[in-house]
Design goal:
By secondary structure, the protein is α/β, with parallel strands linked by helices. The protein is built from 16 helices and twelve strands. The protein has a domain at about 5-170 and about 290-330: NAD(P)-binding Rossmann-like Domain (Rossmann fold), CATH 3.40.50. It binds nicotinamide-adenine-dinucleotide, 6-O-phosphono-alpha-D-glucopyranose (G6P) and manganese (II) ion. Keywords: Cobalt, Glycosidase, Hydrolase, Iron, Manganese, Membrane, Metal-binding, NAD, Nickel, Transmembrane, Transmembrane helix.
């Protein structure tokens, strides 16, 4: 097996140490020659990198080199794989994305509704620059992007790099949900084969099979409605917010029992309930700053202080393992089936060809080969078309500097709906994002009656 040179862009991310532990756990499936971190924030990256150095010394002694840098040429030259996990504006801007809509009684969420639009308009430019840089220094590297909001980033990258066959956008949520299904069934998550369709953070499992072809869908539905549904992956199992989110799946399966929903559908199907539950002074961003970020930084400090991992507990989570299994299937042409984002081109027969859809695909060394879904029925088609139009309009707004397209996007979104409210949210978001967004051309003011 050829050993890979891996670059992690966003080395300072809160997910990096988990990813390193997953790389250690998956070294047989995805053996590495070198790991290089790249980040624009030297301090944020350094702490994570210093801890990583110690982890790798102990647990990956066969690795030929570990490097970290803020120099993109040094980082991106000679890469086989580049994992991208950046956050333009950081968690501080995530907090604003979530607070602003809440002030107008709309859902405040990182990737859904107005928050997703704000984050998308910040991320697109950086992501395009990054892919251009990677292609300049490593034209043949595989790029695995999971930077959010993945749906909007994927649509922008599709437009910007239509011929790039080695760029894949991916989300861990379907896999994290499948970890809980595996718990219900007493099986390993990688022994389950999903049938699924939708957009990123906006899809449904239609079937869960095992590798022998046995259908477990009804058992899972019954277990969810009768016994409840809980997160089981290590990263989220003890997180009160994720516990609530998984609990909401019980409601979704009770109301709409045909398919098993992605957890993110709660924001679109129960927006008023979501707004009621939220606290502007303690949105998810604040919880992450006080939770995951603090936990990871404390862990890194401890490893560095001890010059060892002996006093810390290091966990492997599905996020890293999933990305790595997909990468391995691309590197070694395993043809494993994973849910990823691809251009539709007939996969979901009654959706547009140019939609970025999220579907199970055979992952090969020629890229993902999506498995046909066929026609979807009216409820799902209607929901998806509205969401897809929102995503496309956000990307249009970026390219056309169009206030009107941004306003249309928000008005269309199920978490907003009301045009005057969409305008108020948009205006507040323009103010908050001055440093990051393209300048949107002004449109006539709201008419006062
Ligand atoms: P974070 O802010 O802790 O980490 C992001 C890192 O990227 C920071 O260290 C930052 O300095 C760096 N960075 C920002 N812009 C950069 C640029 N242009 N070039 C290089 N480095 C840059 O954020 P996080 O919470 O750890 O999340 C990282 C990203 O991964 C986010 O986009 C998050 O939404 C995404 N994510 C996606 C999924 C998924 O399912 N798709 C799952 C988990 C995390
Ligand atoms: C899931 C989603 C990601 C999201 C992550 C963390 O894994 O698929 O897209 O970034 O959750 O969300 P949180 O709200 O915990 O930061
Ligand atoms: Mn995701």
């Amino acid at each position: 097996m050829k050993k890979q040179n891996l670059v992690v862009v966003g080395g300072g991310s809160t997910y990096t140490i988990g990813m390193i532990m997953s790389l250690v756990a998956e070294k047989e499936q995805f053996p590495l020659r070198t790991i290089t971190f790249y980040d624009t924030n030297a301090d944020r990256q350094e702490k994570i990198a210093k801890a990583t150095e110690i982890i790798l010394r102990e647990k990956y002694p066969e690795l030929e080199g570990f490097y970290y840098t803020t120099d993109k040429e040094e980082a991106l030259t000679n890469a086989d794989f580049v994992f991208v996990q950046i956050r333009t504006g950081g968690l501080a801007m995530r907090e604003k994305d979530e607070q602003i809509p809440l002030r107008h009684e709309a859902v405040g969420q990182e990737t859904c509704g107005p928050g997703g639009m704000a984050y998308g308009l910040r991320s697109i430019g950086d992501m395009i620059d990054l892919v251009n840089d990677i292609r300049h220094y490593s034209p043949d590297a595989w790029i695995l992007n999971y930077t959010n909001p993945a749906a909007i980033v994927a649509e922008a990258l599709r437009r910007e790099f239509p011929d790039d066959q080695k760029l894949l956008n991916i989300c861990d949520m379907p896999a994290a949900i499948m970890v809980s299904y595996a718990g219900i069934l007493g099986k390993d998550v990688f022994d389950l084969v999903p049938e699924y369709f939708g957009l990123n953070h906006f899809g449904w499992f239609t079937k869960i099979l095992d590798k022998d072809g046995k259908d477990h869908t009804d058992t899972i539905k019954r277990a969810i409605t009768e016994d409840g549904f809980i997160p089981e992956d290590a990263e989220i199992a003890n997180d009160p917010s994720w516990i609530k989110t998984f609990k909401q799946v019980e409601q979704m399966v009770t109301d709409f029992p045909e398919y098993l929903p992605n957890t993110y559908l709660q924001y679109y199907l129960y927006p008023s309930q979501m707004v009621e539950k939220e606290d502007e002074n303690n949105t998810r961003a604040r919880q992450v700053i006080n939770g995951r970020e603090k936990r990871v930084h404390t862990l890194a400090d401890q490893i560095i202080a001890d010059n060892s991992t002996e006093n810390v507990e290091l966990e492997v989570d599905i996020h890293g393992r999933y990305m790595i299994r997909v990468a391995a299937s691309m590197a070694y042409n395993n043809g494993d089936i994973f849910i990823v984002m691809v251009e539709n081109n007939g996969t979901i027969a009654n959706l547009p060809d140019d939609a970025m859809v999220e579907v199970p695909s055979l992952i090969t060394n020629r890229g993902p080969k999506p498995l046909a879904v066929g026609h979807i029925s009216t409820f799902y088609k209607g929901l998806i078309e509205g969401q897809l139009a929102y995503e496309k309009l956000v990307v249009d707004a970026y390219y056309e500097n169009s206030y009107e397209k941004a306003l249309q996007a928000l008005t269309l979104n199920r978490t907003v709906v009301d045009a005057p409210r969409a305008r108020k949210i948009l205006d507040d978001m323009i103010d908050a994002n001055k440093e990051y967004w393209p300048k949107l051309h002004a449109n006539k003011k709201a008419v006062t009656v």
